[in-house]
Write a structure and sequence with these properties.
Largest sheet: 9 strands, mixed
Shape: globular
Strand content: 5-15%
Structural class: alpha/beta
Number of helices: 11
Number of strands: 9
Strand order of the largest sheet: 6-5-4-3-2-1-7-8-9
Helix content: 25-40%
Radius of gyration: 20 Å
Length: about 325
């Protein structure tokens, strides 16, 4: 419910500054209330504010996108089966996380680069089935991918596992040429065929995976599809939902225009509702943190609940409540705030 409402509000009102500013003000009031409810007054001792958990299978990526803030020089790590199982046990059995709605298989690295990706997907599918048998809540499984490795065999395997609820594809540029310019190392023909094949296989299933796309549009182009290449439009027509957006600055790691001061806004919904599990067990505060600036704990050493309620994360929550984001290196130049 929270995820869907957030996406709908952004879709309809983000390009309407007056309305959007009002919504950001309301979001700040919600942040204040949730901070008091969960972290100050502690009126829900058996619940947490977390609604999304991101999981990064691999910290490596096979592309070098122009608008991405990922530091490709940092050490590459892979998530272990044991670490993922630790998280899944928590999501299934700990009532504090019973309101987590989405498990995003995504952060900075490309999910499908993990050499044991099928083993990890099978483990998630097993927990989904356990939740159904035990009549317990379990989050929807979303995956974001650049699509270059999503070939026919892998697509068929993922669909056969019945592990994904939502697949999101990075479909940037508006034309095949601009796609390859923006997404360095990507090949349009490969991507185009992979997406078509996945959608064709998906459409034969009784329970279809929802497929959507995120499209970065250059500043000199309108945020609509009227100018786009026919092959690009053909893929967009296959999507259940498509989002056109401008590049953002990845919490200040890249330049993407001036960062607007938002003195009207209190807090950050991403900080309040999201945590990210990295392959080495580190937990960071949101998906804008591609380079581990906001690590607040480690799941190999602490429980997810201890990280969630720990001193480091609470410092972030408090400083953003007080509109003191400049004191946090991760948040200081972030556009999302």
């Amino acid at each position: 419910m929270y995820i869907a409402l957030r996406d709908q509000l952004k879709h309809y009102f983000y390009k309407k500054p007056f309305i959007w500013k009002g919504l950001e003000t309301l979001q700040g009031l919600q942040y204040w209330w949730e901070y008091q409810y969960y972290y100050n007054w502690k009126l829900a001792p058996n619940k947490s504010s977390i609604r999304e958990v991101n999981v990064e299978f691999s910290s490596a990526c096979n592309l070098r996108c122009q608008f991405c803030g990922l530091d490709h020089e940092k050490p590459k790590t892979l998530m272990s089966v044991e670490l993922l199982q630790n998280l899944l046990d928590t999501l299934l059995n700990d009532p504090h996380f019973s309101k987590v709605q989405v498990l995003n298989l995504y952060n900075g690295g490309e999910t499908l680069l993990h050499p044991k990706r099928l083993e990890l997907f099978e483990l998630i599918a097993e927990y989904k089935k356990r939740a159904q048998r035990e009549k317990k809540h379990f989050p929807e499984i979303w995956m974001v991918t650049n699509g270059m490795l999503l070939r026919e065999k892998l697509s068929a395997q993922l669909l056969e596992m019945d592990v994904l609820d939502h697949l999101r594809l990075s479909l940037d540029g508006g034309t095949p040429e601009r796609f390859e310019e923006l997404r360095v190392n990507a090949k349009w023909k490969v991507f185009n065929q992979n997406v078509k094949t996945f959608c064709e296989l998906n459409n034969k299933r009784q329970r279809k995976v929802k497929v959507s796309s995120i499209t970065i549009v250059d500043d000199d182009k309108p945020l609509n599809t009227s100018w786009m290449h026919p092959e690009f439009l053909e893929l967009l027509d296959l999507m259940d939902h498509k989002e056109l957006r401008r590049a953002h600055n990845w919490a200040g790691d890249i330049e993407a225009g001036l960062v607007k001061e938002k003195n009207h806004k209190m807090g950050c919904g991403m900080l309040m509702h999201q945590m990210v599990l990295l392959p080495n067990g580190d937990v960071t505060v949101c998906c804008n943190d591609l380079n581990s600036k906001g690590v607040v704990g480690n799941l190999n050493k602490q429980s997810l609940l201890d990280v969630c309620n720990g001193e480091e994360r609470r410092k972030y929550l408090y400083l953003l409540l007080k509109n003191r984001k400049k004191e946090l290196p991760l948040c200081a130049e972030c556009e999302t705030f």
